User: What shape does this take?
Amino acid sequence: MDSTDSETAELAHRRRRRERELSSLYATARSLTALGEVDTVLASIVRHAHELMGTDVTYLSVFDSHSELTLRAVEGSLSPAFRSAHVPADTGVGGRVVQTQAAFWVGNYLTDTTLVHDSDFDRILVDEGIVALLGVPLRDSGRVFGILFAADRIERRFHIDEVALLNAFADHAAVALQNARLYQESRQALADLRQAYSTIERSGQVHEALTQVVLTGGGAREIADLLVTVLDGRVAIYDRDEHLLVATANVRGDADSPADGLQMSLAESRRSGRCVTVADSAGQFHSLVAILAGDSYLGAVVLSHTDAPAEVEARTLERASQILALMTIKQNAVAEAEDRVRGELLTEVITSPRPFSAELAARAEARHLGIDDFDTLLVLDCPSLRPADLTRRLHGVADEWSALAGIHLGTPTMLLCADDRDAAAAAIHRRLRGLVRAPILVCATPVAATAENLRRPFALAARCSKILRNVGVNDKATSTTHLGVYATVFDPDRGDDLRVFITDTLGAVLDYDRRRNTDLVTTLAAYFDNSANLTRASKALHVHMNTLVKRLDRIAALIGDDWQQPDNALPLQLAVRLHTLARELDSGLPG
Assistant: This one.
């Protein structure tokens, strides 16, 4: 064959190769318009590049979130390790391509000392048998986000036509990835829009349903049932004292309070006013929202579910808590108005002369109360609660007993009819103790049918309650009938008897204390409290034994040397005790 025929054949071969290249590039370009799965498109690009380049291995890698090259498509690989290889961005041919943002190749990768090598990747290349390696960049707005590689298992050079062809395929691959990202973002935006519309529509329906509950006079039970219908799961609603009001099922077993295991969540919700979700050890999710009105805590609503709540579900719980707050404020306003009426009625019953007027009896009858039948008066004391808060709980108990409760002269008070006064006081104490979960004192006194009014029974019970508190009794139900030995202290009608008794028995010591500004009465009290033991008494008084003996000698000089004889010591001890208790009442009791 002459030189002319040889040139003609070479030209024809180049033309056919060029046609195949253009055909492949057209096919890959057309595949980009299908907006299919990006991995499918990339696999097609790598396959066409592999066929046209004629290299042993062709693969495409992109940078992941850890700035490592991760393989996305490959043709011609034999090693499984190669298909899952991760290469640091600053090593090898890839590092040089990123640095120059241009194609780069080496005839023998493993022996090239100008490149930064990664020992793990070098071992993978040895197993795969790769020697020559060409890489071209995938760009997006001037940023290299991936690399298309062509590799051979023999040492060789890459011609400029091969580099240009691989660059063309790399440009297609970059477009495919960009299109896929934009397509995915568009699909996600559409899904988000649909979700947002669904959320708005669902929230509107729930808000309308919650509003309807309020307008139709519904309460916490209806709110709980509605939340279960909308959100599934289980719902519990608690009042401000963390007592369970309504539950579709017990949220935390036998717990009565959302604070059991959820204290931190409750505190966070009270600070933020938002829904707080926690998971327990059993995998249950508990979403809690505090019911708030300004700075006032009114309770909590808890949703328990096997799944964590979505955003719209959390907002629904918050909306429900707002509705519950409005309902609670309304109910509290009505209750407070009723409490004021009851308190005014209680005060009139206590202070009005008996027999009661027909008008007063009629007002009580309107509340289904027979004030002429009341035979027991109770006063209550709970230092950990304001009188108003204790009375609010007392009203619920009063309804159970057909009783009248309120605040009289700053003291929570109740009038009732009781066949067994002690049993009634004990039952009311247990009931209130369970509600307030704090020490509470209940003191009952009889109301005589012949009494002109109820001022004296009230004063008697109030003084009795004060004395019990002063002597260290703070959690008890009792009756004034059991405290006869102290009657002279808390019965205002026997105040003269008390003064005469104390003056006759202890007057000389009291006069001495007043004149000399001493406190021999306190010395006597410590002496009797410590069973006449000088050592213990001196320690209690924080004085030396000799000092105590001198004080006792002074007392003997005032009231007689025989004051420690049994017949004299008993009334003296009683006088000291009564005087001490009476002095502790100087803060002033009602009546």
Notes: The two ends are 139 Å apart (CA to CA). DSSP finds 19 helices and 16 strands in the chain. The first strand starts at residue 57 and ends at 63.
